[in-house]
Amino acid sequence: MTDPISDMLTRIRNAQAALHQTVIVPFSQLKFNLVKILEKEGFINEVSVRGRKVKKNIEIKLKYEKNQPIISGLKRVSKPGQRIYAAKDEIRPIRQGYGLAVISTSQGLMTDKEARIKKLGGEIICEIW
């Protein structure tokens, strides 16, 4: 697998299309930090780590409202073949502020709002709305 972040986003997208309650993805620190941001912003219910050492997995409990998923769109922006970077003044709100972008900065992963407040640029990982 060349892009584990895209794989995780696709698993979430597919599970929501099938109205599943949970999704299990292989563990990595980057993916865990990304779903913690989604949990903090209210896009998913709960995140937990299952297993030990090599067999670690991330269990994501999805959030629905009236049998409709809270997340209506996931888009991978920066890919392994083409990295997309944005300077601090190039970061724009996603969907007029209703969505968010996850940005990898020198101070770790954060939302586009936090990056604008802290005046940081970085690699735009994905957009969620």
Automatic annotation (TrEMBL):
Pfam families: Ribosomal_S8
One Gene Ontology cellular component annotation held by this UniProt entry: ribonucleoprotein complex
Entry-linked PROSITE patterns: RIBOSOMAL_S8
Alphabetical list of InterPro entries matching this protein: Ribosomal_uS8, Ribosomal_uS8_CS, Ribosomal_uS8_sf
GO molecular function, one term: structural constituent of ribosome
Keywords (A to Z) from UniProt: Ribonucleoprotein, Ribosomal protein, RNA-binding, rRNA-binding
The keyword Ribonucleoprotein is annotated on this UniProt entry: yes
A biological process from GO: translation
Family matches, as PANTHER family: 40S RIBOSOMAL PROTEIN S15A
Family stated for the protein in its record: Belongs to the universal ribosomal protein uS8 family.
Role noted for this protein: One of the primary rRNA binding proteins, it binds directly to 16S rRNA central domain where it helps coordinate assembly of the platform of the 30S subunit.
Quaternary organization: Part of the 30S ribosomal subunit. Contacts proteins S5 and S12.
Name this protein carries in UniProt: Small ribosomal subunit protein uS8
Species whose genome carries this gene: Candidatus Portnoybacteria bacterium RIFCSPHIGHO2_12_FULL_38_9
Gene: rpsH
